[in-house]
Amino acid sequence: MTRRAVVVGAGIAGLAAALQLHRIGWEPVVIERAPARRSSGYVVAFFGRGYDAAERMGILPALCERHVGAARPQ
């Protein structure tokens, strides 16, 4: 039986939660009240704990490829 979870909000926290749930075998359903994604994208502060979390999630390389002026840890 597949476990399903409702994730409220398609912001960075909601999408990260959905990704992690999917990786451990759950079927996440993301609910977002905005009618569409922003056409100009989203700005995410990418340093400290956020950088560490992206590294643990295995998405750091993909984020760095898509980020203009990506900060690298010192």
Features:
2 domains, two-stranded parallel ribbon, about 70 residues, 3 helices, alpha+beta
Structure commentary:
The protein is an alpha+beta fold and about 70 residues long. About 40% of the residues lie in helices and about 15% in strands. It has two domains: about 1-40, no CATH class; about 45-74, no CATH class. It is built from three helices and two strands; from the N terminus they run βαβαα. A two-stranded parallel ribbon has the order 1-2. It is globular. The mean pLDDT is about 85.
User: What is the helix content?
Assistant: 25-40%
What is the number of independent domains? Answer: 2
Secondary structure class reads alpha+beta
As a whole number of angstroms, the C-alpha radius of gyration is: 14 Å
DSSP summary: helix tally: 3
Q: How much strand content do the residues show?
A: 15-25%
Instruction: State the order of secondary-structure elements, H for helix, E for strand.
Output: EHEHH
Count all strands and give the number.
Answer: 2
Largest sheet: 2 strands, parallel
Mean pLDDT score: 83
- Across the major sheet, the strand order is 1-2
Overall 3D shape: globular
List low-pLDDT spans: none
Q: N-to-C terminal Cα separation, in Å?
A: 45 Å
Structure, briefly:
This protein is of the alpha+beta class and 74 residues long. The protein has 3 helices and 2 strands; from the N terminus they run βαβαα.
